[in-house]
Design goal:
Number of strands: 13
Distance between the termini: 34 Å
Radius of gyration: 32 Å
Structural class: alpha+beta
Shape: elongated
Helix content: 55-70%
Strand content: 5-15%
């Protein structure tokens, strides 16, 4: 690793260079700003086509706000309510963000009045326009203290969700950081060593956020990219540093004070550093599969993940070696000073007296956990696989859905108003927009067909009529049937009172598309140049899920192929490639089963504070497969590389498996605990999709670290024996040679696994006359 060697030899240059890099990335990002996705970027399927047609004609669904006026208790005072309506109407019409203000509509029980305010702009930009409206609503409420006046709607809810997401991320950081520090303190037992991985993770995240802002001008940001940078950045940033630090400490303990810090860092770079690069590339390659989904949200997720992993890898092979050299030199100076004072010395990473220099044992806990695989590999493999398959069974009933507004947290004030709005006006829950584009000369025929469609839909119990006061002549009011100025595009709005994520709402869309429209617009749609499509929140969700299901085989196939290819390239083994793919599929399926068990039903709603969709967010499974396959490669690379290293040193495969897993058990599980902590913190957030992502990733990593890597992997490798390395013959040839003899610090000789020091490097960096550490 030439970069690590240069960094070790020029530590201050490397540290200053890293800080300059972080500052340039962050400064450049702030300078160019963040380019957010527009409504056009989100269009998918028939719903997207309908939105494009409506937008071209200027008759698209625009964001609407509803101002609710009701009495605090008892009947509504008519005079006071009229005065409040006039006040609201005048204030709203004066705002440049407002396109129109409708006449007030009374609820069926007469207790609530609502004033609909239509905003200028698209639905994706509505939250930017809502603050002035909310400010005016608050003024009206203060001016009429005898009434309860509140505002809700698309814009208010969107802004509330955005604000809540920011608060959630701050809360997640507050939880994640201290738990990460505690975990690292347990692993290293040193405050200084704890600070190194956290510092690198934070600076990597800062640099990535700047780069993501620049990248957003090529791939627009959807608001989830920054969340993924924080989620993945803290996890892999700490993990990569943890693996490097652990290997450096092992090399230091094995050297027994005979090598300089530069040589120790170089030795660690040749093993852990190389593994970090391979793991990082595996995560990056796996994540590129998300681009095949052809979805702006997945593009944003993939961009953030790829950038933060790349930056974390760069920090691990550049500035980390420099920091370790500085810390090592400080340790050496302290050791030399204590020697001159006649005191005993133990550098960090040194073993206790009576124990040969090298790797520490896994401890009693890990000895007990590894015992089943060591003594009964076939039974351990069979039972473990059956348990994982049992956990995966609920995934067979997984129902994919697109999270709708009804599922948002009720801690958002606008959502409380939304519930009161729907209680008084249930017909506003679902809005289907039928869009027809034809020649201007056919406009009258189109309108007549749409009126017929309106009448037929109102006779269907899945649909609802509008409240009195919104209907015009012929049963279709100006708020329901609209035409573009050129008369080429006409829209009809239909409503349903069912929840947006319910089966009834989806059934109303299906019946509209496949029964009512063919019956009323069928002949017209068959004419050349006539286009008909349906959009709305339900249509977007249904079309989005269908789009994702269509892309899933392509993404998964690419993912499996890349995982196999990366594993074979890293270890020169087809068997390990197939095993890695199988284990990743097993852990992903088990995690999905747990996700369905917890989130698809209602039993955990109060426990985890969510409203069940009776399904799983459509983005979660695809995201899980991609991210988990990448992160699992971390553990696969670090564990198997230790096994292969020992086998190449002549250790029999069985012993190499046991030694490799034992030596990496503590660091792998510590890294997994850090990841699980980061992911699990997202379960406490309010956004349902983030809850599901955090839960499934935490479950997958936990199963991967404690079942796959401790039970299934060692049992499988023990049963495979030398066949593990097929078709490579390097391990077989190495094991046919005599085992390497390594001299310990006390003059004794040890035989077994471990990295042999290159003679040239040892001579160049050894410290003549160095004092061995004493107990």
């Amino acid at each position: 690793m030439r970069v690590a060697r240069w960094s070790a030899l020029h530590p201050w240059r490397a540290i200053v260079g890293w800080l300059v890099f972080v500052a340039l990335c962050l400064g450049g990002g702030i300078a160019v700003g963040l380019n957010s996705a527009t409504s056009e970027d989100f269009r998918v399927g028939e719903a997207g086509r309908a939105e494009a047609l409506a937008a071209e004609g200027g008759v698209e669904l625009r964001p609407t706000e509803q101002v609710l006026i009701r009495a605090a208790s008892g009947a509504l005072d008519e005079a006071a309510a009229d005065a409040a309506v006039k006040d609201v109407t005048a204030r709203m019409k004066a705002l440049p963000e407002v396109a129109s203000v409708a006449e007030p509509v009374r609820s069926a029980d007469g207790r609530v009045l609502r004033v609909q305010v239509e905003l200028n702009g698209s639905e994706q930009k509505d939250q930017d326009h809502v603050p002035p409206l909310q400010a005016q609503t608050e003024k009206v409420a203060k001016a009429h203290p005898g009434l309860v006046i509140e505002e809700t709607g698309d814009a208010s809810v969107s802004k509330g969700v955005s604000d809540q997401r920011g608060e959630d991320l701050a809360f997640s950081e507050a939880i994640t950081l201290p738990i990460t520090l505690i975990t690292l303190a347990v692993v290293f037992g040193s405050v200084v060593m704890v600070g190194v991985p956290v510092l690198l993770a934070i600076t990597s995240i800062m640099a990535t956020m700047g780069l993501a802002m620049v990248a957003s001008h090529l791939l627009p940001d959807t608001g989830v990219g920054m969340s993924m940078i924080l989620l993945i950045g803290m996890a892999v940033g700490v993990d990569y540093t943890l693996f490097y630090l652990k290997r450096e400490r092992e090399e230091r303990a094995r050297a027994g004070g005979r090598l300089t810090s530069e040589a120790l860092v170089e030795a660690a770079a040749a093993t852990a550093g190389r593994a970090i690069v391979v793991s990082g590339l595996a995560v990056i390659v796996s994540t590129t599969a998300l681009f095949l989904a052809r979805d702006v949200i997945f593009d944003s997720l993939a961009t953030g993940t790829i950038l933060v992993v790349a930056v974390a890898v760069v920090s691990s092979v550049t500035v980390l070696p420099a920091l370790l050299v500085k810390l090592g030199r400080h340790t050496e100076r302290r050791a030399a000073k204590r020697v001159t004072q006649g005191k005993s010395v133990r550098a960090y990473g040194e073993n206790r007296p009576g124990r040969a220099y090298g790797e520490k044992g896994p401890g009693r806990i890990w000895h007990a956990l590894l015992t089943p695989a060591r003594k009964h590999p076939a039974l351990t493999l069979g039972v473990s696989v059956l348990v994982m398959l049992g956990l995966a069974l609920p995934a067979l009933d997984m129902n994919l859905k697109n999270p709708a507004r009804d599922s948002f947290s009720r801690e958002i004030p606008a959502m409380k108003g939304y519930d009161r709005l729907l209680a008084a006006f249930p017909e506003l829950r679902v809005r289907h927009l039928v869009v027809v584009r034809a020649k201007a000369s056919q406009a009258d025929e189109v309108r007549q067909a749409l009126r017929e469609l309106d009448r037929e839909a109102k006779a269907d119990p899945l649909f609802t009529t509008r409240s009195a006061g919104e209907q015009g002549s012929g049963g279709s009011g100006t708020q329901v049937l609209r035409s573009s100025e050129d008369r080429r595009t006409t829209t009809l709005e239909l409503n349903s009172r069912h929840a947006t994520y319910s089966k009834q709402a989806e059934a109303s869309l299906d019946r509209l598309r496949h029964r009512h429209i063919p019956a009323t617009l069928g002949k017209l749609s068959a004419l050349p140049g006539v286009e008909t499509a349906v959009t709305g929140e339900v249509a977007r969700g249904v079309d989005y899920v269908e789009h994702q299901n269509g892309k899933l085989p392509l993404v998964l196939g690419f993912l499996l192929l890349m995982t196999f290819a990366m594993t074979v390239h890293a270890f020169r083994s087809v068997v390990l490639g197939l095993l890695g793919v199988g284990l990743n599929l097993l852990s992903a399926a088990s995690a999905l089963g747990l996700l369905v068990l917890v989130f698809q039903g209602q039993w955990a709603e109060d426990l985890l504070s969510f409203v069940s969709l009776d399904g799983i967010s459509s983005r979660v499974p695809l995201f899980l497969f991609v991210i988990l396959f990448g992160l699992s490669m971390d553990y696969q690379v670090f564990v198997v590389s230790r096994i292969r290293e020992a086998a190449l040193n002549g250790v029999p495969t069985r012993q190499a498996v046991l030694d490799g897993i034992a030596s990496s058990a503590k660091v792998v599980t510590s890294a997994a605990l850090v990841m699980v902590t980061v992911f699990a913190s997202f379960v406490m957030l309010h956004i349902l999709e983030m809850k599901q992502m955090g839960f499934v990733l935490a479950a997958a990593v936990l199963l991967d670290a404690f079942v796959i890597r401790v039970m299934i992997l060692p049992a499988a490798l023990l049963l495979l024996g030398r066949a593990t390395w097929w078709p490579s013959g390097a391990v077989r040839r190495a094991q046919e040679r005599p085992a390497p003899r390594r001299e310990g610090p006390d003059g004794g000789v040890s035989i077994g696994p471990g990295r042999a020091y290159p003679g040239e490097s040892f001579e160049r960096h050894s410290k003549p006359g160095s004092v061995p550490h004493s107990g």
